[in-house]
Design brief:
With about 425 residues, this protein is α+β, with helices and mostly antiparallel strands. It is about 35% helix and about 30% strand. It has five domains: about 1-45; about 50-60 and about 345-400, conserved putative lor/sdh protein from methanococcus maripaludis s2 fold; about 75-105 and about 220-250; about 110-215; about 250-295 and about 310-340, Efflux pump adaptor protein, beta barrel domain (Elongation Factor Tu (Ef-tu), domain 3, Beta Barrel), CATH 2.40.30.170. Strand 11 and strand 12 form a beta hairpin. Helix 3 packs antiparallel against helix 4.
């Protein structure tokens, strides 16, 4: 019994800690080798079951974008001010939030002087029209009297037996002359009366047009905003006051408004396409384009005279963008804009075609039935494709999905 125990203890002393370490490492290496061999077998099986495909590079449009923030605004908001030269407010026809159409009445001024002048012009016009009627009647009567006198004179001159015919003819002649003078005078008075009718008609029309200008109409279809509740009937502004009475927000498609840094402004310009998204509306985007970019900063450098405390404000430049649609968007929503600042058509291949890393990237090309390895310079990746800046040309046959088992020099007959 003691002998067996001693033999066991001697065996335990034979395996040192270092030897145990080597044993563990050996086991780990064997495991790694077995895994690699398994993967290799699987890859070989895959490569055998999957035929290497060859494609030609294709031209695709690659874009670079700049992401900026903005918010939804009305495309146009008109601020309407009280005009002190037009008198006091007479009546306001709309309420805040009302939808109005172009030409609809918003409010009116009151000017009693114009109303009185219109009334007087209308009276003067009617008096002149009455005079015209009277003069026309007078002229008709005089023309009849002259005709009767002429007939009487003619009748007397043909009566040779009447000894007083000469006297009668003289009398008729004088009467006709008198009637003619009176007729001419009536016609002059008629012309004067007709001119007065025209004068007072024009005067009344001008006054009415002036009165119509006292009613302010909407210039656009839109919504009434910020109605000044302190302004009511009888309110009149002084010459030195500029007081807003309301705003009309246009119903035209919404726009995006925001600001750009100097670096962003250098890349962004009108006409560039945009893709808009908002956290408020998930899984939806809108398209549009940049409509305007200001050339003047919103903030100017500080002019503090204390040099130690002088700080320059960061300059920002405002921009606006138009939207193709505005479904589910509302003024005030915060948005992100992806602005397409550059777009180029480049030769491209599937990303699976490119092997290697860093500057040592290559593809497999097929030329005259033989596979060759060709170095390439890649550019931007977009979706499943990568741009090829150097190394390939249109018409080349490039391996679409080469596995690690592909070897340069391999002969391939694509007809089989």
């Amino acid at each position: 019994m003691e002998t067996a125990k001693r033999i066991y203890e001697e065996k335990e002393r034979v395996i040192t800690p270092r030897q145990k370490k080597f044993i563990v490492m050996g086991i780990i290496v064997l495991l790694i080798v077995s895994v690699v061999l398994s993967v290799a077998v699987v890859e070989i099986k895959k490569s055998k079951s999957k035929t290497l495909q060859f494609i030609s590079p294709t031209v695709k449009s690659f874009t670079k974008t700049e992401t900026v923030s903005g918010h939804v605004v009305q495309s146009h908001t008109e601020t309407i001010y009280v005009n002190p030269t037009k008198g006091s407010i007479n009546e306001i026809f709309v309420k805040e939030g009302d939808t109005v159409t172009k030409g609809q009445k918003l409010f009116s001024y009151e000017d009693p002087t114009i109303a009185a002048e219109i009334g007087q012009a209308e009276v003067n016009k009617k008096l002149a029209e009455t005079t015209v009627t009277q003069k026309n009647d007078q002229i008709s009567s005089l023309e009849k009297d002259i005709q009767n006198a002429i007939l009487a004179s003619t009748s007397n001159s043909t009566d040779a037996t009447n000894p007083d015919s000469n006297v009668t003819n003289t009398t008729n002649t004088l009467e006709i002359q008198s009637l003619q003078v009176e007729l001419n005078s009536a016609k002059e008075e008629l012309n004067a009366a007709q001119l007065k009718v025209e004068k007072y008609t024009l005067e009344a029309e001008q006054l009415k047009a002036q009165q119509e200008s006292l009613t302010v109409n909407s210039n656009n279809d839109g919504v009434v905003l910020n109605l000044n509740k302190s302004i009511g009937q009888g309110f009149k502004a002084t010459d030195k006051q500029q007081i807003s009475i309301m705003q009309i927000a246009s119903n035209e498609p919404f726009q995006i408004e925001g600001k750009l840094t100097e670096k962003e402004k250098a890349k962004v310009e009108p006409g560039q396409a945009i893709k808009v998204s908002s956290k408020v509306v998930a899984n939806k985007s809108w398209k549009g384009s940049i409509s305007e970019v200001s050339n003047y900063p919103m903030n100017n450098p500080s002019t503090n005279q204390d040099k130690k405390s002088t700080k320059e404000a960061i300059p920002y430049y405002s921009f606006r963008a138009t939207l193709d649609s505005q479904e589910k968007l509302y003024p005030g929503y915060e948005t992100n804009l992806e602005i397409v600042v550059q777009s180029k058509d480049l030769l491209a291949v599937p990303a699976t075609s490119v092997k290697g890393s860093g500057k040592s990237k290559y593809v497999y090309v097929l030329k005259k039935g033989t596979i060759y390895k060709k170095n390439v310079k890649t550019g931007q990746k977009q979706g499943k494709y990568v741009a090829i800046l150097k190394g390939l040309k249109e018409g080349d046959k490039v391996g679409k999905n080469p596995s690690w088992t592909v070897r340069p020099g391999t002969k391939i007959d694509l007809k089989k």
